[in-house]
User: Fold this.
Amino acid sequence: MDLQTFLDKYLMLLIPILVVQLALMAAGLIDVLRREPGEVSGGKRWIWVLIIVLVNLLGPLFYFIFGRKGYQSERD
Assistant:
């Protein structure tokens, strides 16, 4: 199988995955950088930035599930 055949066959499958990955990465990075260090699990934002950037597709999902602490109520 040459490169052109590979691209023709699989590129249309890879593009949506790439778009989802980049969107999740951007959303995760924006969210983690807008938060104070105490608002993320572990208190260290740089660790979550590395996880979001280096762990493809799953890194942002891990951050959104495990990395963010609950929102505080401002009514008190």
